[in-house]
Amino acid sequence: MSDNLTMQLLKAGILVAFLYFSRGMVESVKKEKKAREEVEKLNLKLKKANQKLKELVEVKNEFLHITSHQLRTPLTAIRGMVSMWYEGSFDHLSKRKKKEMLKNICISAERLNNITNDMLNSIELEGGVFKFQFKQLSLEKIIKESINILKFNFNKKGLYINFDTKAGNAYN
């Protein structure tokens, strides 16, 4: 009988050990599953952050593209007028016309400065420091100034531009 009891105790011990290790395995699997779910959540967050970063890079690239174009316009006008002046293309012009050319160069330089300031303001805006200052602008005035600044370069190439502010009125 003692052999039988020993055998039953041994079987019970094995069963207890099996249950103990099984419980440990179940806990381990639960922890692994929870860790895997956490990794999946973090992976999803990372994908979303990566997508947002890609969108921000696209916005930045578009901003740089537009800004470089905006910088190029007044710079081209300044470079063109100064080059023409240097080459003597304005020697035949009256003093008043030459003064107008200098004014156009100054206006282009001011536009270039304003664009640079806008870029710096956008950096401040990104950092949350900038405060907007809205003001009314005359689109007609901006277009007329742009045409006036660039018309000498256009005319040199045989191109002419007209801007109609009102029906029947053309700005040359």
Structure explained in plain terms:
With 172 residues, the protein is mostly helical. The protein has two domains: 7-133, Helix Hairpins (Orthogonal Bundle); 134-172, no CATH class. It contains three helices and two strands, in the order αααββ. It has helices at residues 2-87, 95-126, 139-156; strands at residues 163-166, 169-171. The radius of gyration is 38 Å and the shape is rod-shaped. The N and C termini lie far apart (122 Å). The model has no long low-confidence stretch (mean pLDDT 83).
Question: Which features characterize this protein?
Answer:
Helix Hairpins; 2 strands; mainly alpha
SSE inventory with pairings:
Blueprint: H1 2-87, H2 95-126, H3 139-156, E1 163-166, E2 169-171
Antiparallel strand pairs: 1-2
Secondary-structure-based class equals mainly alpha
Mean pLDDT: 83
Radius of gyration: 38 Å
Contiguous uncertain segments of 5+ residues: none
Look at the structure and give the CATH class of the largest domain. Answer: Mainly Alpha
What's the helix-strand series?
A: HHHEE
What is the number of E strands?
Answer: 2
- For CATH, the homologous superfamily of the largest domain is named as Signal transduction histidine kinase, dimerisation/phosphotransfer (DHp) domain
CATH architecture of the largest domain: Orthogonal Bundle
Query: Cα distance, first to last residue?
Result: 122 Å
Helical proportion, percent range: over 70%
Largest sheet: 2 strands, antiparallel
Strand order, largest beta sheet: 1-2
Number of helix segments? 3
